Amino acid sequence: MLKGADDVVMEQEDSASQHGEITSWDINDIKLPQDVRQIDWFQEWPDSYIKRIYSSEDKNAQKHHSSWAMRNTNNHNSRILKKSCLGVVVCGNDCSTLDGRKIYLRPAICDKARQNNSVRKCCPNCNGPLQLLSCRGHGGYPVTNFWRHEGQFIFFQSKGAHDHPRPETKIEAEARRSVQKAQTAFSPSYPRLKRIQETESLTGAMPTQKALPLLLSKPDAYMLPANFRGYLSKSSREPMLDSCCGRPPYPGAAGEDGGSGEASTWSRSPAFGRTPSAGRPGRGPAIPLCAAPSPQHCAHPGTQHVPPVTKSSHHPFRPSAGPFGDESCEENPPLAHSSSGLPLPPYPAPEGSPCPRASGAPHHRPFWAPARGSGGEGGEGGCCMGLSHCNDDTAFNLYPLW
DNA sequence: CGCTGCGGGTTTT
DNA sequence: AAAACCCGCAGCG
Protein backbone atom coordinates (compact mmCIF):
# COMPACT_ATOMS: atom_id res chain seq x y z
CA MET A 1 0.00 0.00 0.00
CA LEU A 2 2.47 2.44 0.84
CA LYS A 3 4.04 1.62 -2.22
CA GLY A 4 1.00 2.34 -4.08
CA ALA A 5 1.05 5.81 -2.94
CA ASP A 6 4.51 6.27 -4.08
CA ASP A 7 3.77 4.95 -7.39
CA VAL A 8 1.01 7.29 -7.84
CA VAL A 9 3.14 10.13 -6.98
CA MET A 10 5.63 9.00 -9.35
CA GLU A 11 3.38 8.81 -12.18
CA GLN A 12 2.09 12.17 -11.60
CA GLU A 13 5.44 13.54 -11.42
CA ASP A 14 6.42 12.02 -14.54
CA SER A 15 3.82 13.39 -16.59
CA ALA A 16 3.98 16.67 -14.99
CA SER A 17 7.59 17.05 -15.24
CA GLN A 18 8.33 16.18 -18.65
CA HIS A 19 5.40 17.62 -19.97
CA GLY A 20 4.80 16.67 -23.32
CA GLU A 21 7.16 13.93 -23.50
CA ILE A 22 6.24 11.28 -21.25
CA THR A 23 8.99 9.91 -19.30
CA SER A 24 8.42 6.39 -19.88
CA TRP A 25 11.86 5.38 -18.97
CA ASP A 26 13.15 4.14 -15.70
CA ILE A 27 16.69 4.37 -14.55
CA ASN A 28 16.87 0.62 -14.50
CA ASP A 29 15.82 0.14 -18.06
CA ILE A 30 18.22 -1.65 -20.22
CA LYS A 31 17.95 1.04 -22.78
CA LEU A 32 17.26 4.61 -22.10
CA PRO A 33 15.86 6.99 -24.67
CA GLN A 34 18.39 8.68 -26.82
CA ASP A 35 16.01 10.72 -28.80
CA VAL A 36 15.60 13.23 -26.13
CA ARG A 37 14.17 16.44 -27.34
CA GLN A 38 14.63 18.57 -24.39
CA ILE A 39 17.21 18.54 -21.80
CA ASP A 40 16.40 19.63 -18.33
CA TRP A 41 18.00 22.26 -16.26
CA PHE A 42 19.98 21.03 -13.41
CA GLN A 43 18.07 20.94 -10.19
CA GLU A 44 19.79 21.37 -6.95
CA TRP A 45 16.92 20.34 -4.84
CA PRO A 46 15.30 17.49 -6.62
CA ASP A 47 12.53 16.08 -4.60
CA SER A 48 9.71 13.66 -4.93
CA TYR A 49 9.67 11.10 -7.62
CA ILE A 50 11.14 12.86 -10.51
CA LYS A 51 13.16 12.04 -13.55
CA ARG A 52 15.37 14.37 -15.42
CA ILE A 53 17.58 14.18 -18.39
CA TYR A 54 20.58 16.44 -18.36
CA SER A 55 23.17 17.09 -20.93
CA SER A 56 26.29 15.13 -20.45
CA GLU A 57 28.02 18.45 -20.51
CA ASP A 58 26.23 19.80 -17.54
CA LYS A 59 28.86 20.15 -14.91
CA ASN A 60 26.56 19.71 -12.02
CA ALA A 61 25.07 16.65 -13.48
CA GLN A 62 28.48 15.27 -14.20
CA LYS A 63 29.34 15.61 -10.61
CA HIS A 64 26.07 14.23 -9.47
CA HIS A 65 25.59 17.23 -7.29
CA SER A 66 22.64 17.86 -5.10
CA SER A 67 22.05 20.37 -2.42
CA TRP A 68 20.61 17.68 -0.29
CA ALA A 69 23.26 15.85 1.65
CA MET A 70 23.46 12.71 -0.39
CA ARG A 71 25.93 9.97 0.18
CA ASN A 72 27.01 7.31 -2.15
CA THR A 73 25.32 3.99 -1.70
CA ASN A 74 26.59 0.81 -3.17
CA ASN A 75 23.95 -0.75 -5.28
CA HIS A 76 26.37 -3.14 -6.89
CA ASN A 77 25.69 -1.70 -10.25
CA SER A 78 28.53 0.24 -11.69
CA ARG A 79 26.37 1.72 -14.38
CA ILE A 80 23.95 3.37 -12.08
CA LEU A 81 25.19 5.55 -9.31
CA LYS A 82 22.93 5.51 -6.32
CA LYS A 83 22.94 8.01 -3.51
CA SER A 84 20.84 8.20 -0.41
CA CYS A 85 19.90 11.21 1.66
CA LEU A 86 21.50 11.82 5.01
CA GLY A 87 18.85 14.20 6.20
CA VAL A 88 19.61 17.39 8.01
CA VAL A 89 21.15 18.40 11.29
CA VAL A 90 18.91 20.46 13.50
CA CYS A 91 19.22 21.98 16.92
CA GLY A 92 18.19 19.61 19.64
CA ASN A 93 16.66 22.49 21.46
CA ASP A 94 14.72 23.51 18.49
CA CYS A 95 15.93 26.98 19.02
CA SER A 96 15.25 29.85 16.77
CA THR A 97 17.40 32.78 16.02
CA LEU A 98 16.41 36.21 16.91
CA ASP A 99 14.69 36.66 13.73
CA GLY A 100 12.83 33.49 14.06
CA ARG A 101 14.82 31.20 11.91
CA LYS A 102 15.70 27.64 12.49
CA ILE A 103 19.02 26.04 12.10
CA TYR A 104 19.44 23.43 9.46
CA LEU A 105 22.95 22.25 9.03
CA ARG A 106 24.35 19.94 6.46
CA PRO A 107 25.48 16.58 7.69
CA ALA A 108 28.93 15.62 6.55
CA ILE A 109 28.84 13.07 3.82
CA CYS A 110 31.68 11.06 5.15
CA ASP A 111 30.92 9.02 8.20
CA LYS A 112 34.15 9.88 9.78
CA ALA A 113 33.71 13.53 9.20
CA ARG A 114 30.32 13.36 10.73
CA GLN A 115 31.74 11.91 13.84
CA ASN A 116 34.40 14.49 14.06
CA ASN A 117 32.01 17.21 13.64
CA SER A 118 29.87 15.89 16.24
CA VAL A 119 32.45 15.95 18.80
CA ARG A 120 32.95 19.53 18.93
CA LYS A 121 30.09 21.12 17.49
CA CYS A 122 26.96 22.43 18.82
CA CYS A 123 24.20 24.61 17.73
CA PRO A 124 25.60 27.84 16.47
CA ASN A 125 22.68 29.63 17.84
CA CYS A 126 22.01 28.29 21.31
CA ASN A 127 25.04 26.19 21.72
CA GLY A 128 22.87 23.25 22.49
CA PRO A 129 23.19 19.76 21.14
CA LEU A 130 22.59 19.06 17.54
CA GLN A 131 20.48 16.32 16.26
CA LEU A 132 20.48 14.52 12.99
CA LEU A 133 17.13 14.39 11.41
CA SER A 134 17.41 11.47 9.11
CA CYS A 135 15.56 11.21 5.90
CA ARG A 136 12.79 8.71 5.69
CA GLY A 137 11.01 9.94 2.72
CA HIS A 138 11.10 6.76 0.76
CA GLY A 139 9.00 4.23 2.50
CA GLY A 140 10.76 4.83 5.73
CA TYR A 141 14.15 4.84 4.12
CA PRO A 142 16.14 7.74 2.88
CA VAL A 143 15.28 9.29 -0.40
CA THR A 144 17.48 7.85 -3.09
CA ASN A 145 18.81 9.49 -6.20
CA PHE A 146 20.09 7.61 -9.19
CA TRP A 147 22.44 8.83 -11.86
CA ARG A 148 23.22 7.13 -15.09
CA HIS A 149 25.29 8.34 -17.98
CA GLU A 150 24.14 7.19 -21.35
CA GLY A 151 25.46 8.68 -24.49
CA GLN A 152 25.17 12.38 -24.48
CA PHE A 153 22.79 12.47 -21.61
CA ILE A 154 22.82 11.99 -17.94
CA PHE A 155 19.66 10.48 -16.59
CA PHE A 156 18.56 11.31 -13.13
CA GLN A 157 15.81 9.77 -11.10
CA SER A 158 14.86 10.34 -7.51
CA LYS A 159 12.72 8.13 -5.38
CA GLY A 160 11.00 9.41 -2.31
CA ALA A 161 10.09 12.84 -1.04
CA HIS A 162 12.31 14.41 1.54
CA ASP A 163 10.50 14.60 4.82
CA HIS A 164 12.77 17.11 6.43
CA PRO A 165 13.94 20.62 5.85
CA ARG A 166 16.69 21.39 3.48
CA PRO A 167 20.13 21.48 4.92
CA GLU A 168 22.55 24.18 4.10
CA THR A 169 24.17 23.68 0.78
CA LYS A 170 27.51 22.29 0.16
CA ILE A 171 28.94 25.65 -0.53
CA GLU A 172 27.59 26.99 2.65
CA ALA A 173 28.84 24.11 4.64
CA GLU A 174 32.27 24.46 3.21
CA ALA A 175 32.35 28.11 3.90
CA ARG A 176 31.26 27.54 7.39
CA ARG A 177 33.89 25.01 7.92
CA SER A 178 36.62 27.20 6.75
CA VAL A 179 35.44 29.99 8.88
CA GLN A 180 35.35 27.89 11.90
CA LYS A 181 38.70 26.62 11.23
CA ALA A 182 40.07 30.03 11.00
CA GLN A 183 38.45 31.11 14.14
CA THR A 184 39.53 28.14 16.02
CA ALA A 185 42.98 28.90 15.06
CA PHE A 186 42.72 32.27 16.54
CA SER A 187 41.41 31.41 19.85
CA PRO A 188 41.83 27.88 20.64
CA SER A 189 41.21 28.37 24.17
CA TYR A 190 37.84 29.73 23.96
CA PRO A 191 36.28 28.00 21.20
CA ARG A 192 32.98 28.11 22.74
CA LEU A 193 32.94 31.66 23.23
CA LYS A 194 33.95 32.26 19.83
CA ARG A 195 31.31 30.18 18.61
CA ILE A 196 28.87 32.13 20.41
CA GLN A 197 30.14 35.18 18.89
CA GLU A 198 29.86 33.71 15.58
CA THR A 199 26.43 32.85 16.20
CA GLU A 200 25.57 36.23 17.02
CA SER A 201 26.84 37.44 13.94
CA LEU A 202 24.96 34.88 12.23
CA THR A 203 21.77 35.41 13.70
CA GLY A 204 21.49 38.92 13.64
CA ALA A 205 24.19 40.96 13.89
CA MET A 206 25.44 40.35 10.63
CA PRO A 207 26.46 42.94 8.46
CA THR A 208 25.21 41.71 5.38
CA GLN A 209 21.88 40.66 5.45
CA LYS A 210 22.32 38.40 2.72
CA ALA A 211 24.80 36.58 4.52
CA LEU A 212 22.70 35.52 7.20
CA PRO A 213 20.10 33.88 5.63
CA LEU A 214 22.05 30.95 5.47
CA LEU A 215 21.39 28.58 7.98
CA LEU A 216 18.33 29.80 9.30
CA SER A 217 14.95 29.61 8.20
CA LYS A 218 11.87 31.09 9.34
CA PRO A 219 9.53 28.83 10.88
CA ASP A 220 6.59 30.46 9.72
CA ALA A 221 7.61 30.90 6.36
CA TYR A 222 9.43 27.82 5.95
CA MET A 223 7.54 25.12 4.50
CA LEU A 224 8.52 21.76 4.81
CA PRO A 225 8.71 19.38 2.17
CA ALA A 226 5.78 17.54 1.30
CA ASN A 227 6.28 14.85 3.60
CA PHE A 228 7.54 16.91 6.14
CA ARG A 229 4.59 18.22 7.68
CA GLY A 230 4.03 16.25 10.61
CA TYR A 231 7.25 16.51 11.84
CA LEU A 232 7.92 18.81 14.41
CA SER A 233 6.49 17.67 17.41
CA LYS A 234 7.96 15.31 19.50
CA SER A 235 10.81 13.52 19.08
CA SER A 236 11.86 10.45 17.98
CA ARG A 237 14.72 11.58 16.32
CA GLU A 238 17.92 10.17 16.12
CA PRO A 239 20.31 10.14 18.72
CA MET A 240 21.27 13.57 19.06
CA LEU A 241 24.47 14.62 18.62
CA ASP A 242 25.27 16.21 21.55
CA SER A 243 28.49 16.00 22.43
CA CYS A 244 29.25 19.30 22.34
CA CYS A 245 28.23 21.21 24.87
CA GLY A 246 26.92 18.94 27.05
CA ARG A 247 24.44 21.22 27.96
CA PRO A 248 21.08 19.87 28.08
CA PRO A 249 18.58 21.57 26.20
CA TYR A 250 17.14 24.27 28.03
CA PRO A 251 14.07 23.36 29.63
CA GLY A 252 12.08 25.93 28.26
CA ALA A 253 13.54 26.10 25.03
CA ALA A 254 12.12 23.12 23.76
CA GLY A 255 8.90 24.49 23.87
CA GLU A 256 6.16 22.35 23.82
CA ASP A 257 7.44 19.23 24.40
CA GLY A 258 7.76 19.05 27.73
CA GLY A 259 9.67 16.57 28.42
CA SER A 260 11.49 14.45 26.56
CA GLY A 261 14.27 16.42 27.02
CA GLU A 262 15.82 15.36 24.10
CA ALA A 263 15.37 17.05 21.16
CA SER A 264 12.10 17.80 21.57
CA THR A 265 10.69 18.92 18.69
CA TRP A 266 11.24 17.04 15.74
CA SER A 267 9.41 14.02 15.41
CA ARG A 268 8.19 12.73 12.44
CA SER A 269 4.92 11.57 12.64
CA PRO A 270 3.93 9.76 9.80
CA ALA A 271 3.45 12.39 7.58
CA PHE A 272 1.00 11.32 5.24
CA GLY A 273 -0.42 8.21 5.91
CA ARG A 274 2.29 6.67 4.30
CA THR A 275 4.42 5.68 6.95
CA PRO A 276 6.82 3.17 6.41
CA SER A 277 5.61 -0.03 6.96
CA ALA A 278 6.85 -0.81 10.07
CA GLY A 279 9.74 0.05 11.62
CA ARG A 280 12.04 2.28 10.53
CA PRO A 281 15.21 0.91 9.94
CA GLY A 282 17.12 1.98 12.70
CA ARG A 283 19.53 4.01 11.17
CA GLY A 284 22.57 5.00 12.40
CA PRO A 285 23.79 7.28 14.72
CA ALA A 286 23.33 10.75 14.48
CA ILE A 287 25.78 13.08 13.53
CA PRO A 288 26.52 16.20 15.11
CA LEU A 289 27.55 19.16 13.47
CA CYS A 290 27.45 22.59 14.21
CA ALA A 291 28.41 25.33 12.45
CA ALA A 292 28.47 28.68 11.64
CA PRO A 293 27.27 30.65 8.95
CA SER A 294 27.77 30.38 5.49
CA PRO A 295 27.03 32.25 2.48
CA GLN A 296 23.94 32.12 0.89
CA HIS A 297 22.80 32.04 -2.35
CA CYS A 298 20.57 34.09 -3.93
CA ALA A 299 19.89 33.73 -7.19
CA HIS A 300 18.91 36.29 -9.12
CA PRO A 301 16.21 35.64 -11.28
CA GLY A 302 17.93 34.92 -14.19
CA THR A 303 15.09 34.69 -16.14
CA GLN A 304 16.61 33.67 -19.07
CA HIS A 305 16.05 30.34 -19.82
CA VAL A 306 19.12 29.32 -21.15
CA PRO A 307 19.83 26.16 -22.67
CA PRO A 308 20.27 23.40 -20.49
CA VAL A 309 23.63 22.79 -21.12
CA THR A 310 25.07 24.91 -18.78
CA LYS A 311 28.29 25.89 -19.29
CA SER A 312 28.55 26.57 -16.04
CA SER A 313 31.40 27.82 -15.09
CA HIS A 314 33.00 27.31 -12.15
CA HIS A 315 30.74 27.10 -9.44
CA PRO A 316 28.92 24.30 -8.35
CA PHE A 317 25.55 25.03 -9.05
CA ARG A 318 25.04 28.28 -10.33
CA PRO A 319 24.87 27.56 -13.80
CA SER A 320 21.97 25.87 -14.48
CA ALA A 321 19.79 26.91 -12.06
CA GLY A 322 17.88 29.59 -12.69
CA PRO A 323 15.22 31.15 -11.27
CA PHE A 324 13.70 28.43 -9.67
CA GLY A 325 14.65 27.25 -6.71
CA ASP A 326 12.39 26.76 -4.50
CA GLU A 327 10.37 24.18 -4.90
CA SER A 328 8.17 25.84 -2.94
CA CYS A 329 5.21 24.34 -3.60
CA GLU A 330 5.07 22.30 -0.80
CA GLU A 331 1.62 22.86 -0.45
CA ASN A 332 0.92 20.29 -2.79
CA PRO A 333 1.31 17.01 -1.52
CA PRO A 334 3.87 14.79 -2.46
CA LEU A 335 4.71 15.98 -5.58
CA ALA A 336 4.20 19.20 -4.67
CA HIS A 337 7.26 20.66 -3.97
CA SER A 338 8.86 19.00 -6.47
CA SER A 339 11.48 20.66 -7.77
CA SER A 340 9.60 22.77 -9.53
CA GLY A 341 12.27 24.58 -10.08
CA LEU A 342 12.10 25.81 -13.32
CA PRO A 343 9.72 28.45 -13.61
CA LEU A 344 9.22 28.72 -17.01
CA PRO A 345 11.94 27.73 -18.93
CA PRO A 346 11.79 26.62 -22.25
CA TYR A 347 11.65 23.23 -21.32
CA PRO A 348 9.01 21.28 -20.15
CA ALA A 349 7.27 22.93 -17.59
CA PRO A 350 8.31 20.88 -14.93
CA GLU A 351 6.39 20.20 -12.13
CA GLY A 352 6.26 23.73 -11.86
CA SER A 353 2.87 23.94 -12.75
CA PRO A 354 1.66 22.11 -9.95
CA CYS A 355 2.64 24.75 -7.79
CA PRO A 356 0.48 27.55 -7.83
CA ARG A 357 2.40 29.54 -5.55
CA ALA A 358 0.41 28.95 -2.76
CA SER A 359 -0.64 31.60 -0.75
CA GLY A 360 1.32 34.49 -0.47
CA ALA A 361 3.28 32.93 2.05
CA PRO A 362 6.78 32.63 1.27
CA HIS A 363 7.67 29.28 0.54
CA HIS A 364 9.77 27.60 2.70
CA ARG A 365 12.97 28.70 2.08
CA PRO A 366 15.61 27.35 4.02
CA PHE A 367 17.84 29.30 5.85
CA TRP A 368 18.86 31.74 3.57
CA ALA A 369 15.76 32.99 2.60
CA PRO A 370 15.47 36.50 2.90
CA ALA A 371 12.69 36.11 4.98
CA ARG A 372 12.00 39.59 4.80
CA GLY A 373 9.45 41.03 2.77
CA SER A 374 10.55 42.65 -0.06
CA GLY A 375 12.04 40.75 -2.56
CA GLY A 376 12.28 37.73 -0.83
CA GLU A 377 9.20 36.21 -0.62
CA GLY A 378 7.52 37.80 -3.08
CA GLY A 379 8.76 36.24 -5.58
CA GLU A 380 8.40 33.10 -6.03
CA GLY A 381 9.53 33.90 -9.01
CA GLY A 382 12.21 34.10 -7.92
CA CYS A 383 14.67 35.13 -6.29
CA CYS A 384 16.43 33.54 -3.98
CA MET A 385 16.69 30.08 -3.89
CA GLY A 386 18.78 27.35 -4.12
CA LEU A 387 22.20 27.21 -4.46
CA SER A 388 22.60 27.10 -7.77
CA HIS A 389 21.52 30.25 -8.24
CA CYS A 390 23.62 31.85 -6.15
CA ASN A 391 26.07 33.49 -7.76
CA ASP A 392 29.33 33.31 -6.78
CA ASP A 393 29.32 36.73 -6.00
CA THR A 394 26.98 36.36 -3.45
CA ALA A 395 28.41 33.43 -2.04
CA PHE A 396 31.85 34.43 -2.18
CA ASN A 397 31.38 37.81 -1.01
CA LEU A 398 30.02 36.54 2.05
CA TYR A 399 32.82 34.47 2.95
CA PRO A 400 34.94 37.23 3.89
CA LEU A 401 32.50 38.22 6.38
CA TRP A 402 32.78 35.21 8.27
C1' DC B 1 40.22 17.13 5.75
C1' DG B 2 36.24 16.12 3.44
C1' DC B 3 33.78 14.81 -0.90
C1' DT B 4 33.06 11.37 -4.15
C1' DG B 5 33.02 6.96 -6.41
C1' DC B 6 34.03 2.07 -6.23
C1' DG B 7 33.30 -2.36 -4.72
C1' DG B 8 33.45 -6.28 -1.27
C1' DG B 9 30.56 -7.95 2.15
C1' DT B 10 26.36 -8.49 5.35
C1' DT B 11 21.57 -8.44 6.60
C1' DT B 12 16.77 -8.35 5.76
C1' DT B 13 12.70 -8.98 3.11
C1' DA C 1 17.14 -11.24 -6.13
C1' DA C 2 16.62 -6.64 -4.51
C1' DA C 3 17.45 -3.13 -1.37
C1' DA C 4 19.66 -0.95 2.45
C1' DC C 5 23.77 -0.41 4.72
C1' DC C 6 28.69 -0.92 6.61
C1' DC C 7 33.48 -0.56 5.68
C1' DG C 8 37.79 0.43 3.53
C1' DC C 9 40.29 2.25 -0.35
C1' DA C 10 41.65 5.64 -3.66
C1' DG C 11 41.51 10.02 -6.32
C1' DC C 12 40.75 14.72 -6.02
C1' DG C 13 40.46 19.55 -4.49
Can you put this structure into words, describing what you see?
- The protein is α+β, with helices and mostly antiparallel strands and 402 residues long.
- The protein is 19% helix and 10% strand.
- The protein is built from seven helices and nine strands; from the N terminus they run H-E-H-E-E-E-E-H-E-E-E-H-H-E-H-H.
- It has helices at residues 2-17, 59-62, 111-120, 170-186, 191-205, 374-378, 392-401, and strands at residues 51-55, 70-73, 81-85, 88-91, 102-105, 130-133, 144-150, 153-159, 216-217.
- A five-stranded antiparallel beta sheet has the order 1-8-7-3-2. It has a four-stranded antiparallel beta sheet with strand order 6-4-5-9, with no helix packed on it.
- A hairpin with a 7-residue loop joins strand 2 and strand 3 (81-85).
- It is elongated.
- Residues 1-20, 188-224, 229-239 and 246-402 have low confidence and may be disordered.
- It binds a DNA duplex (13 and 13 nucleotides) through strand 2, strand 3, helix 3 and helix 4.
